[in-house]
Structure formats: C-alpha cells, structure tokens
C-alpha cells in the first residue's frame, strides 16, 4: 500500500515538473526572442550620473540593493545591455515595463551606464 501511494506521488510530481518546465521554456523564448532582442543591441552611450537619478526615481524602490527589495540586487549581473533594454521596455513577471513616455531612450542609456558602475555587463 505504501509503495503504491509513493508511486502515485512520484507520478504527480513528474507531471508538475513536466508542465512547469514547458511553460517557463516558451515564456523564456518569447521574451528573449532573437529578432526582438536584436533591435535592442548596441553600445551603452549614456551618462552614469544622469542614470543614477533615473534609477533613484524608477528602480531603487524595488532594487535598493541587498535582499531588502522586491527585486533582486543588481550588482555584478552579467546580462547583456540588449537584454536589460528589452527587460526595461517589456517588463518580466513582477518587474514592470517602462515605455518611452516614462523613461526616454536617452534616460534608458543613462540607466544602463549607471548599472555598469554596479559591475553589470562585464
Ligand atoms: C515594482 C518593482 C520594480 C521596479 C519599479 C523595477 N523592478 Fe526590476 N525587477 C523587479 C522584480 C520583482 C524582479 C525579479 C524578476 C521578476 O520577478 O520578474 C526584477 C528584475 C530585474 C532585473 C533582473 C532581470 C532578470 O532577468 O532576472 C533587472 C536587471 C532589473 N530588474 C532592473 C530594473 C531597472 C533598471 C529598473 C528601473 C528602470 C527596475 N528594475 C524597476 C521589480 C521591479
């Protein structure tokens, strides 16, 4: 009896893993789709000092650093500039999207320059 119960549990667990896996797989491909990301590529041209201000206004509330925030600490992340441009413009799960009406293209570059001073993109 115990054995049967165990294998039912295992079966359920396997099913959950299979479903979860395929779901997050498609999502990942959708948000990081090759063509889409290529429109976000290019060198970082912004000014870190101006970016610190943008970060304080739009990002620091959720990304204060360390484990205190809703969002993760961003120090030392290795995402590419294109990935972060796309993330800020499109959002991801609980991370909100910011359109050009909120953060201009220029300020987007400034934020990236600021994040580089965190050790990102290296
Ligand atoms: C309302 C809260 C909130 C705000 C505001 C916010 N973020 Fe986030 N951010 C998150 C959360 C939560 C995550 C973790 C991933 C998730 O749950 O979607 C995240 C993830 C990230 C990541 C890591 C992405 C990854 O793939 O894990 C980066 C980089 C980032 N945010 C940068 C920014 C920048 C730059 C700004 C300002 C323009 C910003 N965030 C504003 C909540 C926020």
Report on the architecture of this protein.
- With 122 residues, the protein is an all-alpha fold.
- The chain has a domain at 40-116: Cytochrome c-like domain (Cytochrome Bc1 Complex, Chain D, domain 2, Orthogonal Bundle).
- The protein is built from 5 helices and no strands.
- It has helices at residues 2-31, 34-38, 48-58, 81-90, 105-116.
- The model is unreliable at 8-33 (pLDDT under 50).
- The structure holds heme C.
- The site of heme C has 20 residues, from helix 4.
Topology of this structure?
Layout: H1 2-31, H2 34-38, H3 48-58, H4 81-90, H5 105-116
Helix pairs in contact: 3-5
The structure holds heme C (HEC).
Heme C (HEC) binds at residues 58-59, 61-63, 70-72, 74, 77, 84, 87-88, 92-96, 98, 111.
Distance between the termini: 56 Å
Fraction in helix: 55-70%
Full CATH superfamily name of the domain at 40-116? Cytochrome c-like domain
The biggest sheet amounts to: none
Average pLDDT reading: 81
Number of beta strands = 0
CATH class of the domain at 40-116: Mainly Alpha
Percentage of residues in DSSP E strands:
under 5%
Q: Bound small molecules, which ones?
A: heme C
Low-confidence stretches: 8-33
Radius of gyration: 19 Å
Written as H for each helix and E for each strand, in order along the chain, the element string is: HHHHH
At the third CATH level, what is the topology name of the domain at 40-116? Cytochrome Bc1 Complex, Chain D, domain 2
* SS-based class: mainly alpha
CATH architecture of the domain at 40-116: Orthogonal Bundle
Number of helices: 5
Taken from the alpha-carbon principal axes, the silhouette is: globular
């Amino acid at each position: 009896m115990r054995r049967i119960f165990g294998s039912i549990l295992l079966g359920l667990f396997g099913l959950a893993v299979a479903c979860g896996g395929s779901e997050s797989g498609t999502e990942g491909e959708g948000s990081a789709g090759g063509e889409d990301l290529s429109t976000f590529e290019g060198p970082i041209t912004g000014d870190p000092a101006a970016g610190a201000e943008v970060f304080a206004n739009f990002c620091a509330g959720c990304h204060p650093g360390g484990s205190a925030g809703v969002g993760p600490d961003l120090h030392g992340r290795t995402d590419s500039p294109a990935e972060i441009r796309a993330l800020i413009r499109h959002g991801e799960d609980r991370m909100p999207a910011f359109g050009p009406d909120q953060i201009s293209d220029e300020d987007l570059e400034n934020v990236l320059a600021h994040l580089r001073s965190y050790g990102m993109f290296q």
